[in-house]
Amino acid sequence: MFEGILTALVTPFRNGEVDEEALRALVERQVKAGVDGVVPCGSTGESATLSHTEHRRVVEQVVKAAAGRIAVVAGTGSNSTLEAIELTQHARDAGADGALLLSPYYNKPTQEGIYRHYAAVAEATSFPLVIYNIPGRTASNITPETLGRLAEIDCIVGVKESSGDLDQVAHAVALCPDDFAVLSGDDALTLPLLSVGGKGVISTTANVVPEKMGDLVRAWQAGKPSEARAVHFQLLPLFDLLFCETNPIPVKAALEMMGSLSGEIRLPLTSLTEAHRGPLRDALQAVGCLS
To answer: Which of 118, 160, 199, 252 is catalytic?
Structure first.
């Protein structure tokens, strides 16, 4: 259901508040670039430091700005199953097309606990759900076997795989049905993941170069691996710089350099260090983002 190129949207801030005008402009940029969807309120969207009121408002504004032209998959994850249900119900009622839910963090559930968490959200919402496996942030990994079980639930339609382990991803693809979308959560691993049966990417880099991320995925889908590799290697230095510090610190700095937003970020995250600003600017110039 959700395949191709989806952009993990940043949340713009100005003077401590969500900059809704900049947010709407970001969505419009993605629509014009031809992406398949946007994902507000994920890790890149600083969901951890959004209030519940802000979280709901961001989802509502993104749905309104997208206006049915591209899919909206709202981040609704929580380490509380009841809270995840409430956020997912809100996304559904706000008009989103689906929800992205990271695996419960901090409390480190067992594989059975992870399974029951997602099954409970699915049962309570009957809404298309994409699992988000990012062990580096949650301190727990969703195994391919657990994904295989979850893929049997009708409204669980895909996974954003950010384990960084291609062997694990390959086993997940093998254990899940063909219509279950395994999506890359690591921009630099998009091409390798596609090669083992992945269906696309939920991309941070697409905030900056949505057309080029689209070119990479579309070239592979069109059976043109050499073209996909050429785009991958062109973007590789930018991938490195956009993750040189904790996401979304570098991507917000990049968008500020491009004049798209203020670059403001919320504590405990801090602005990009000076040592990385020059190399990031050079990488942006190399891909045509800066004059």
So the answer is: 160
Identity of residue 279: P
pLDDT-based confidence at residue 216 (cuts at 50, 70, 90): very high
Q: Which of 115, 118, 132, 252 is catalytic?
A: 132
End-to-end CA distance of the chain: give it in Å, rounded.
Answer: 38
User: At CB < 8 A and 24+ separation, what contacts does 163-171 make?
Assistant: 163/133, 163/134, 163/135, 164/136, 164/189, 166/192, 166/193, 166/196, 168/141, 168/143, 168/144, 169/193, 169/196, 169/198, 170/196, 170/197, 171/144
Asked if 120 and 81 touch (Cβ cutoff 8 Å), the reply is yes
Domains and CATH numbers, the chain: 4-223 (3.20.20.70)
Look up 160 and say whether it is catalytic: yes
* pLDDT, tens only, 219-264: 999 999 999 999 999 999 999 999 999 999 999 999 999 999 999 9
pTM: 0.95
User: CA–CA separation, 96 vs 41, rounded Å?
Assistant: 12
Please indicate whether residue 115 is annotated as part of the active site.
no
Asked if 163 and 169 count as a contact pair (C-beta separation under 8 A), the reply is: yes
